[in-house]
Every structure is written in C-alpha cells, then in structure tokens.
Amino acid sequence: MADEQSTPVAPAERQHNEPPIHDPELCGGCLMCWVYCPEDAIIVERGKIVGIDASACARCGQCVLVCQPTRHARHWPDS
Ligand code: SF4
Ligand code: SF4
Questions:
Q1: Which residues, judged by CB distance below 6 Å to any ligand atom, belong to the binding site of ligand 1?
Q2: Which residues lie closer than 8 Å to 51 by C-beta, 6 or more apart?
Q3: 21-75, which class in CATH?
Q4: Domain definitions of the chain by residue range
Q5: Over its length of 79 residues, how does the chain's per-residue pLDDT go in tens digits?
Q6: pTM value?
C-alpha cells in the first residue's frame, strides 16, 4: 500500500500590505496589543504606544483582535 502524501499547507497569505493603524484618540492605554504582539513590533515609551515597527510587523492582526472588544483604536488601513 502506497503511503499517502500529505499536501503542504501554504502559509497564510498576507492580507494587508501595511501594519494596522493606531488611533491615539480612541486608545485607552490598556497595552493589550503590545502584550499580544508576537513580533514585539509595537513601540511603547513611558507606558504609551508611540508607534509600530513596520519592518517587524508580520500583519498577523493579533493587535487588532485584542483591541476590538475595547476601544477599536487599532484597525487596518483599509477598514
Ligand atoms: S489594545 Fe487598543 S486600547 Fe489597548 S493599548 Fe492597544 S490600541 Fe490602545
Ligand atoms: S499585526 Fe501582528 S505583528 Fe503587527 S503589530 Fe499587530 S500584533 Fe504585532
């Protein structure tokens, strides 16, 4: 009996070309996005989000997901 060959799983396609946008007007400062960012791409200084390292951001969307239930301060450029 021939071995079944598994089909390689394609890596998830990047759905966004740019990192999520941070809206400081809506941000409540909970830092959940920073905690959950797997790439350490969210830049925090003195307890506040001051930017995002676009070269480090993998566009995974974790920061958008954890922010949405609270303030919607983080969203994709096209949404
Ligand atoms: S999760 Fe949202 S509200 Fe919390 S710090 Fe990040 S952007 Fe601000
Ligand atoms: S999209 Fe992912 S990698 Fe980029 S800042 Fe958000 S959590 Fe970090």
A1: 22, 27-33, 49, 66-67, 70-71, 73-74
A2: 22, 42, 43
A3: alpha beta
A4: 21-75
A5: 444 444 444 344 567 889 999 999 999 999 999 999 999 999 999 999 999 999 999 999 999 999 977 677 788 887 6
A6: 0.77
